[in-house]
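Interim report to the steering committee. The following record documents the input for Luciferase-like monooxygenase (334 residues).
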Amino acid sequence: MDTSTLKHIPYSVLDLATVLDGYTAADTFKTSLEIAQQSEALGYKRYWFAEHHNMAGVASSATAILIGFIAGGTQSIRVGSGGIMLPNHSPLIVAEQFGTLASLYPNRIDLGLGRAPGTDQVTAMAIRGENFHAAHNFPKDIDRLHQLFSADNAGSKVRAIPGEGLDIPIWVLGSSTDSARLAAEKGLPYAFASHFAPALFEQAVSIYKNNFRPSEFLDKPYVMACVNVVAADTDDQAELLSSSVKRMFLGVITGRRERLKPPVENINSYWDQLEKEAVEQMLYYSFIGSKETIKLNLSAFVSKFGVDEIMSTSHIYDHEAKLYSNKLFASIFE
């Protein structure tokens, strides 16, 4: 297998601000900054946070604030959202928040947008209030954001100050074919959540590429795939570390969402066969192993799907092991 293709692939990080069992969100934010600073030094291109709500183990609910915190503690790495769940917010508020970020940290802020609530329906109702019952139009809200960021909006009665006239790249995020069609239609870069929704990845990428319409923002398709990564010196060490993310996904499918647990020697004692199959299906695009193992498997993945950028997300309990995994993963692209 030719692994040289990875030399030309940008690599990035998705951080869910995972809260460890026995620790607090405050601890998480400190370690996120350390990982972001390390990622910048290792040549990672972006550091994104995802908006989630009402999850004991995920502290990235105030996404724009975290983006500002990380951007303020780094110098050059792009920082952004993977993504902001647009139905939870008015486009004007998003434009003002990201306009503020882009004014503070010029040419470093990305705005990835999703149409899901990032939580359960009861919590979504709590976020949106009476707007929960209102019709949401994700494509029109994206158009509205582009309008608010445009210098041509200066004559409008509603303006994003700051935000107007700033270059803030908008990405469409997705886990389905609907998002692929939308990103293609609008000529926007497309980030797919293959780290938890692998089933439609191949079909979505094909739809996006085959239907892409060049735009003022992008002249050709650009696909970023998010994948799970656990790297260690040996395959066995990585497998042991990966028991934490497997237990996390077990919590997702069983409804027992907890803080990230330490690794365990025998993961099979925690699930039955059906649960194991469900977790492994969700984690299908995971790269777990030594540097050599991951490099081989990732090269095959990039070659097969023709992705333009890889975004890694790593749910590793031990902070030093996570830093080491991040370092090993970056070395694959050298």
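The radius of gyration is 19 Å. The committee is asked to note this result when reviewing the revised timeline.
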